[in-house]
Design brief:
The protein is α+β, with helices and mostly antiparallel strands. It has 16 helices and 12 strands. The chain binds adenosine-5'-diphosphate (ADP).
Length: 529
């Protein structure tokens, strides 16, 4: 009954013996149905029983096999009908035939549809298994510490708080600090990769007995933020927090996780963590060193300023003494020359005002708090620097030349910052020319507008220039080629300018010597930084 072609199309799903048994039963049933249908007088839709043959055989046949079997069943049904009834008019028999044919066709269609759905399901399952394997591989081998955690209990707990009327979790925490301890006890770890074990240490008593409580540092707010993210229904969370490892060390980590849309999937949330303890410690140390050296550099500037202050005050103070002596002489005359006394007194007042102005200017240059941007005329700034460093120029026999801009240039900046950078660059230039022939020791400062936004102030010297090796590390903190250098000057100068939107560019002049260019924004963009 089942053709040889159909037999080849048998689908190997069960065991071979099971398939053979099913095939034989179906074959026997088909033969019996055909025999009863064609050769007995039973007035009934016997051919409907081919449906059972189809259902049995569908277990072991492919789609094509099932379709062929349905066609064969229809042919046999028609053959049996014409064999028994010929072409005579027999309405009940025709109706029975129609019912049988319909039953076979519908059953075949349903089997095929079922089969399509089954194959689809198998494929989906295979894909799922594939992606699970891929996910496992990535999970296990990632260098990022990964955990799979069950957040379903903590989510339910938080949602129950919401249902009870809590609208702000952080607010609620302030009066109920125990809520966080309760939450930490509800999160269970399901799996952790090697990197995670390395980060927190190996757990001797197994993962599953562990809740988050063990690892959260008591003073850490990140966990509260995390709970708040779940409470507010956010889909992602990223935070920086402290964890306590198995052997009690504190680790600073960046953690990141995504929450599923479907609440039932909260039982498997992947948490990623990156240990930034070392990096953070290094950055802190570097920041502290930079602050310390910036203070030292400021102290050096203060030294330069106070030397110049003493120098500048000398003149008005001397004048005051001379005028006071003159005033006394005019007073001691008989009769006293009051007009001359008045003139001397006026000169004393004028010189005292000058002295007080000098002190005031110097103080405002130094005051830490006085750091609001102001209009700074760069030519004046350069002249002030010249005055401040006059002693250095004389000592090292250095000429200081300024080539001013065509039009006066002013920038909105913090005066003391620009002054400090300029003093640093000029000091470096003076030091760089210690080996240069005296008649060539010259510093050229030039000022010009770069474009609509920036002004350029460059300091050129006639020293040996910057070697290729030094050029690469010039702005790196602690890089120095001087026996008593700190190697912080240029690094501080660059960060000072960059913090205000400017730049510091170093280079060598084609005719020898180094040239440092300060690029200063005309408008202060302090607010943007
Ligand atoms: P320090 O002056 O303490 O060494 P800096 O950061 O100011 O620190 O300078 C770093 C290094 O850059 C110097 O040691 C020197 O090698 C190089 N350098 C700076 N300015 C000049 C210059 N005008 N000419 C040549 N080399 C320079």
């Amino acid at each position: 009954m089942v053709s040889s072609i159909t037999l080849k199309l048998i689908n190997r799903r069960g065991t071979v013996s099971h398939e053979i048994a099913l095939g034989l039963i179906a074959l026997a049933l088909a033969v019996a149905v055909f025999y009863v249908d064609a050769f007995t007088e039973i007035e009934s839709a016997i051919a409907v029983l081919y449906v059972i043959v189809l259902l049995l055989a569908a277990e072991i046949l492919t789609r094509i096999g099932t379709t062929l079997l349905a066609i064969v069943s229809i042919i046999l049904t028609l053959f049996a009908y014409f064999y028994s009834h010929g072409f005579e008019e027999n309405v009940p028999a025709q109706l029975r035939l129609a019912v049988s044919l319909a039953a076979i066709t519908i059953t075949c269609a349903l089997i095929l549809r079922n089969e399509t759905a089954r194959v689809g399901l198998i494929e989906a399952n295979l894909h799922l298994r594939d992606s699970e394997t891929r996910y496992r591989y990535i999970f296990e081998h990632s260098r990022i510490a990964l955990w799979e955690r069950d957040y379903s209990a903590v989510r339910s707990f938080l949602m129950s708080l919401k249902a009870e009327g809590v609208s702000d979790l952080k607010d609620y925490y302030r009066t109920n600090p125990g809520v966080i301890v309760a939450c930490t006890g509800l999160i269970r770890t399901i799996a952790a990769n090697d990197a995670a074990m390395e980060l927190l240490g190996h757990m001797t008593d197994g993962l599953h007995s562990r809740t988050m409580r063990r690892y959260i540092a008591p003073d850490d707010d990140t966990f509260l933020d995390l709970m708040d993210a779940i409470f507010c229904g956010e889909r992602h969370f990223e935070g920086k927090g402290n964890l306590i490892t198995e052997n009690g060390e504190s680790r600073l980590v960046i953690m990141s996780m995504s929450f599923p849309e479907d609440p039932s999937a909260f039982n498997r949330v992947v948490v990623g963590m990156v240990d930034i303890t070392q990096r953070e410690m290094m950055q802190k140390a570097l920041r502290e060193a930079q602050d310390e050296l910036a203070r030292a550099s400021r102290a050096a500037t203060v030294g330069t300023l106070s030397a110049s202050l003493a120098h500048e005050l000398n003149q008005p103070l001397g004048a005051i003494v001379v005028n006071a002596q003159t005033l006394l002489r005019w007073l001691n005359r008989e009769p006293p020359d009051l007009a001359a006394v008045r003139r001397s007194a006026e000169r004393i007042i004028r010189d005292s005002q000058r002295a007080s102005e000098i002190i005031h200017n110097t103080r405002s240059m130094l005051t830490q708090g006085d750091r609001t941007p102001e209009q700074v005329d760069l030519e004046t700034l350069i002249e002030e620097t010249r005055a401040l460093m006059e002693h250095d120029f004389q000592r090292d026999m250095v000429e200081f030349d300024v080539s001013p801009a065509e039009t006066p240039l002013a920038v909105k900046a913090i005066r003391i910052e620009l002054q400090q950078v300029l003093i640093n660059l000029v000091t470096n230039a003076v030091q760089a020319m210690r080996e240069t022939a005296i008649d060539r020791r010259k510093i050229l400062v030039s000022l010009g507008r770069k474009d609509d936004i920036f002004v350029s102030l460059s300091v050129r010297d006639f020293g040996p220039g910057i070697s290729e090796e030094a050029m690469a590390k010039l702005f790196t903190p602690f890089f120095t080629t001087k026996p008593s250098g700190m190697g912080m000057g240029l690094s501080i100068c660059r960060s000072t300018l960059e913090a205000r939107g400017g730049q510091l560019i170093a280079g060598n002049h084609p005719e020898g010597g180094a040239i440092f260019e300060m690029i200063i924004p005309i408008e202060d963009d302090h607010d943007q930084h």
